[in-house]
Amino acid sequence: MPYLEELSVYDLVQYLNQQDLKPQLAVAGAVNQISQAIEAMVPRMEQGGKVRVAGAGTSGRLAQLDASELPPTFGIDQDQWKTLMAGGRDAFWNAVERAEDNVEEGFKDMASETLGMNDIVIGVAASGRTPYVQGALQAAERAGCLRIGIFCVSTPPLQPLTHITIAIPVGPEPLSGSTRMLAGTAQKMVLNIISTGVMVRLGHTLHNLMIDMKPSNHKLKLRAEAIVQELLDCDDNTARNLLQQHQYQIRPALIQALTGSRDWQSFKGSLGPLWQLKHLDGIDIPAE
């Protein structure tokens, strides 16, 4: 590896950019395990299962970054997918380095979530041996949860505590030991893939569109109108009028257009089959 301070700024940027190819290759090598994780999670969540992700430092912050986006993107409750962070909530913003060494704290934090057999615990640890994550996985084991590990080494010591191990060995960091770089990038990729894959399989999307997003500002209301226009092949006024009847919730608006019914709660899960059937027959959008 080069001595970083001896590189020109251009060469340093080029070197770091080239290093960022490693996480992509590592994640590509774990596609089977990531797929297994999604397939195991979906039926449990269909039965009301919750997801808890345990991490420390960069791993925990990346897990929270992913989890915090799921309620507005897919319309789920915040309690359905949460992050437990070594050092507590303050550690999301300020480093509490010693907290990751506490097995008991990880066990206590996870045990306090009162989880059961339908719930899922994901442990994220670049080293594959973080004590806080170990404690969280041990509590999950006692509760009978599905346990998934995301680790950035080939043979993680915590593997025996998991049902599914996603190993994404990225190799040495360009800045030795700084796992916020390659390991963090790989972890972020896997977390995004898992959460998006689960939400797709639970029916929170139609095609590649977010039909359960929460349109909480003007930009998102415009996006909701664009989604309805695309799916129903209608003009913007029709889309806007339909959405206004449902407080800009996309799913109820689509169901009314596709079925003529306002009882949208009867149509749970994927709208794909319903859309395909109605799209072939032609969609008659009811007037207000």
UniProtKB/TrEMBL annotation:
It comes from the Bacteria. GO terms for molecular function: carbohydrate derivative binding; carbon-oxygen lyase activity; ether hydrolase activity. Keywords: Carbohydrate metabolism, Lyase. Coiled coil: none annotated. The keyword Lyase applies. Signal peptide: none annotated. The keyword Lyase applies. GO terms for biological process: amino sugar catabolic process; peptidoglycan turnover. Residues 41-204 form the SIS domain. InterPro entries: Etherase_MurQ, MURQ/GCKR, SIS_dom, SIS_dom_sf. This is N-acetylmuramic acid 6-phosphate etherase. It comes from Sulfobacillus benefaciens. The gene is murQ.
